């Protein structure tokens, strides 16, 4: 009997090992992934990062690679990508990147150190006006050591370069220099990278199509043959299509659709850490937001953040004052700085000359890509009415929203969901006066100095201290207005396998396969 029990135990152990190893699901090659995209891309420009707008950025995530990459949250570890390894020399003043050999762009040209140098040089060229240039302007020189070795010399020691290349908006996207030469201005409609998928077509208002890169440098990837992004501006239409199996993946699920999809068979709804905010930008280029009293009245004491979190987000968000959401590295809670105090807001407005006879009037700009923002704006309008402010809501499409905020800085108050972050420095592109990324019109030399200290420090504890100081200063001056955290949801059919959830920072499909 004892021997019999041992035999059965051995069989069970073996069966468990076989189930874990031999019977584990293997990726199935082929198939088309159909994705609902909430709006049209504005343009494709590898050197403008998220200033392309979410639609173009999310699709380009699968067209390009950077030198380094980041694992999904919460780990967020910096890992090799086009650079297979790197060295930090001279106490952080010199970086040497050893590139993968044999990588080619989608147009058949070589990716090598010369191509990497061309891309980085474009980013740091002031004439290009790259949105992400502030992350890299401390680069003094980019040198080609040999065909597959790149050296970057910094003006001063920098602890921030690897974080930027790996963790900030997919780093510096490596685009084909030959494609830039071939297409000229039409380059904005012909993205050519080294990524797992190649750009096939873009029919505005209808679809964007990517096809498998058969020469991808990562062995065995991608699994999919094709990705088809279908433009679906109406989230109800996208939700219905997902439930019906007409699409496989819903890239941004608005709050109103989350409970419905959570209860739907055959659909997986995913969310994660609170790493992004709902913003209520106040443009400091216009009155009364050029005065701190105006910002504190409208962006501080005049907002009932708790009500917005409870009502607009069905209790799935939290009030947020700090520039960083609580899931971001080194975030601190500053909600006590601006409790809901409508009487204090009225007092500040009266000091500025606004009262019942002369009410403050302005427009709240929102995008139609997320219905929740309409709910947030409506709540804000009602709350502001209680302090004598007459706010009008202007609803625009996603492309117009990008243009008016990120390009023209043409707004008074803007309400929207905003980017997932890794740390305070990733937000810092908005803290420097006169940059394209200075949406609000910040003019704060002390804040700029703190950013530079953070970037130069090699000590994580010193960076943590500086991050806290910056968060407190920004909240005190209300140079950035957050309203609540932003719970980001995506949904897909359960046969979509191995999707890595990066919040809304990245939408990557190189490892995804379809079990059908």
Describe this structure in words.
α8 (292-301) runs antiparallel to α10 and α14 runs antiparallel to α15. The protein contains 15 helices and 20 strands. It is 30% helix and 20% strand. β2 (68-70) and β3 (78-80) form a beta hairpin. The longest helix has 19 residues, at 2-20. The strands form five sheets. The chain has a seven-stranded mixed beta sheet with strand order 8-9-10-1-11-18-12. A five-stranded mixed beta sheet has the order 15-14-16-13-17. Strands 4-5-7-6 form a four-stranded antiparallel beta sheet, covered by helices on one side. The chain has three domains: 64-180, Alpha-Beta Complex (Dipeptide-binding Protein, domain 1); 195-272 and 489-514, Periplasmic binding protein-like II (D-Maltodextrin-Binding Protein, domain 2, 3-Layer(aba) Sandwich), CATH 3.40.190; 277-485, Dipeptide-binding Protein, domain 3 (Roll). With 516 residues, the protein is α+β, with helices and mostly antiparallel strands.
Task: Describe the protein's topology.
Elements: H1 2-20, E1 32-37, H2 54-60, E2 68-70, E3 78-80, E4 83-89, E5 94-99, H3 113-124, E6 139-146, E7 149-154, H4 161-167, H5 177-183, E8 197-203, E9 207-212, E10 226-231, H6 235-244, E11 249-250, H7 258-262, E12 267-270, E13 277-282, H8 292-301, H9 305-311, H10 342-351, E14 361-367, H11 371-385, E15 390-396, H12 398-407, E16 413-417, H13 424-427, H14 445-456, H15 460-477, E17 482-485, E18 490-493, E19 496-497, E20 513-514
Helix pairs in contact: 8-10, 14-15
The number of distinct β-strands equals 20
**What is the CATH-assigned architecture of the largest domain?**
Roll
N→C terminal distance: 46 Å
Oligomeric state of the chains? single chain
Structural class: alpha+beta
- For the largest beta sheet, what order do the strands appear in spatially? 8-9-10-1-11-18-12
Overall mean pLDDT: 92
What gross morphology would you assign?
globular
* DSSP helix fraction: 25-40%
Helix segment count? 15
| Superfamily (CATH H level) name of the largest domain | Dipeptide-binding Protein, Domain 3
Count of structural domains: 3
Describe the main β-sheet briefly.
7 strands, mixed
**Rg measurement, Å:** 24 Å
At the fold tier of CATH, the topology name of the largest domain is Dipeptide-binding Protein, domain 3
What percent strand? 15-25%
């Amino acid at each position: 009997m004892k021997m019999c029990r041992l035999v059965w135990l051995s069989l069970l152990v073996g069966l468990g090992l076989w189930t874990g190893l031999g019977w584990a699901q293997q990726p199935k090659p082929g198939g088309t992934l159909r994705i609902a995209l909430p709006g049209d891309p504005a343009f494709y420009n590898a050197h403008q990062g998220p200033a392309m707008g979410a639609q173009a950025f999310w699709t380009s995530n699968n067209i390009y690679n950077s030198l380094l990459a980041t694992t999904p949250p919460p780990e967020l570890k910096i890992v090799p990508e086009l650079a297979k390894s790197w060295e930090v020399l001279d106490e952080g003043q010199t970086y040497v990147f050893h590139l993968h050999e044999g990588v080619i762009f989608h147009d058949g040209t070589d990716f090598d150190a010369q191509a990497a140098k061309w891309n980085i040089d474009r980013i740091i060229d002031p004439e290009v006006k790259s949105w992400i240039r502030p992350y890299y302007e401390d680069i003094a020189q980019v040198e080609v050591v040999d065909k597959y070795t790149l050296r970057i010399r910094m003006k001063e020691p920098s602890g921030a370069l690897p974080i930027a290349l790996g963790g900030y908006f997919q780093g510096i996207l490596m685009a084909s220099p030959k494609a830039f030469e071939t297409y000229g201005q039409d380059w904005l409609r012909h993205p050519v990278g080294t990524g797992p998928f190649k750009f096939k077509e873009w029919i505005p208002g209808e679809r964007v199509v990517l096809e498998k890169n058969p020469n991808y440098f990562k062995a065995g990837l991608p699994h999919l043959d094709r990705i088809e992004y279908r433009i679906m501006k109406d989230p109800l239409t996208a939700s219905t299509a997902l439930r019906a199996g007409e699409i496989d993946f819903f890239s941004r699920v608005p709050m109103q659709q989350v409970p419905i999809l959570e209860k739907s068979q055959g659909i997986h709804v995913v969310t994660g850490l609170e790493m992004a905010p709902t913003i209520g930008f106040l443009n400091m280029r216009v009155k009364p937001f050029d005065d701190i009293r105006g910002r504190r009245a409208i962006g501080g004491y005049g907002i009932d953040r708790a009500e917005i979190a409870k009502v607009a987000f069905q209790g799935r968000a939290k009030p947020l004052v700090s520039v960083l959401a609580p899931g971001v590295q080194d975030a601190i809670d500053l909600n006590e700085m601006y409790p809901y105090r409508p009487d204090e807001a009225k007092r500040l407005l009266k000091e500025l000359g606004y009262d019942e006879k002369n009410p403050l009037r302005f427009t709240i700009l929102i995008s139609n890509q997320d219905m929740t923002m309409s709910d947030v704006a409506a709540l804000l309008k009602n709350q502001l009415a209680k302090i004598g402010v007459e706010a009008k809501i202007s609803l625009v499409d996603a492309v117009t929203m990008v243009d008016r905020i990120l390009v023209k800085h043409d707004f008074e108050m803007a309400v929207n969901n905003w980017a997932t972050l890794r740390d305070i420095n990733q937000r810092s592109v908005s803290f420097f006066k006169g940059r394209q990324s200075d949406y609000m019109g910040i003019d704060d030399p002390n804040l700029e100095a703190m950013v530079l200290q953070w970037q130069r420090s090699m000590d994580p504890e010193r960076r943590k201290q500086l991050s806290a100081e910056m968060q407190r200063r920004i909240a005190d001056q209300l140079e950035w207005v957050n309203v609540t955290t932003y719970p980001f949801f995506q949904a897909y059919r359960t046969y979509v396998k191995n999707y890595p959830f990066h919040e809304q920072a990245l939408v990557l499909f190189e490892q995804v396969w379809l079990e059908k």
